[in-house]
Amino acid sequence: DADVTQTPRNRITKTGKRIMLECSQTKGHDRMYWYRQDPGLGLRLIYYSFDVKDINKGEISDGYSVSRQAQAKFSLSLESAIPNQTALYFCATSDPPGQGETQYFGPGTRLLVL
Amino acid sequence: LAKTTQPISMDSYEGQEVNITCSHNNIATNDYITWYQQFPSQGPRFIIQGYKTKVTNEVASLFIPADRKSSTLSLPRVSLSDTAVYYCLVGYRGSTLGRLYFGRGTQLTVWP
Question: Which of A55, A100, B18, B86 is the most buried (most CB within 10 A)?
């Protein structure tokens, strides 16, 4: 079974709708991340969380919100989706400091906003 | 936040050694260099990490000169399955990990 899972894998929604992307991990990591990937632009950090009580904005947090419901769960919400939020979204976790801090990515959620 | 510069794309043939160089002129004393590999429609996957000199694992080698302003990922004897995007990241192994910069990466295409 995958260590980092994302649901849904694909989603089509309409402008103005609120949607939630969910991420679960079984690695026991405190640190979790949400990234967005657009063609030719690499990955850009949206939000990150270093533990259940910690939420931090990344490069491109406008239009997004997150919720860290538990150590294993980190959700990303689009409050009112717009077409330029069409992208591939990745959730990731990372090893603790002092243990390499490698990031482990989920399979991604492909989102289309019409 | 140290940013990186990599070639946008590279081509190679099966069986050749591929070297991808990354520039990181503003690297800080506490920064480490990490490389990730990404296949289409998949999340990036960790390849290798280093601080200085040379690091080798079962997948690749990482060469870092003394001034640490650049690094080179070396993939020995590539195959078609090595076609992917390769990202070079520089970041502090500590609380600022969340601010790592992925950049656009290098698209490596391996031809038969």
Answer: B86
Q: Write the pLDDT tens digit of every residue in B31-78.
A: 888 999 999 888 999 999 999 999 999 999 999 999 999 999 999 999
Per-residue pLDDT, B31? 82
Facing B46 at nearest CB: one of A58, A90, A103? A103
CB-CB neighbors (< 8 A) of A90 in chain B: 43-44
Asked whether B40 and B47 are in contact (CB, 8 A), the reply is: no
Q: Binning pLDDT at 50, 70 and 90, where does residue A9 land? A: very high
Q: Least CA distance to B50: which residue of chain A?
A: A100
Nearest Cα of chain A lies from the Cα of B35 at a distance, in angstroms, of 10
For chain A, the distance separating the N- and C-terminal CA atoms, rounded to the nearest angstrom, is 33
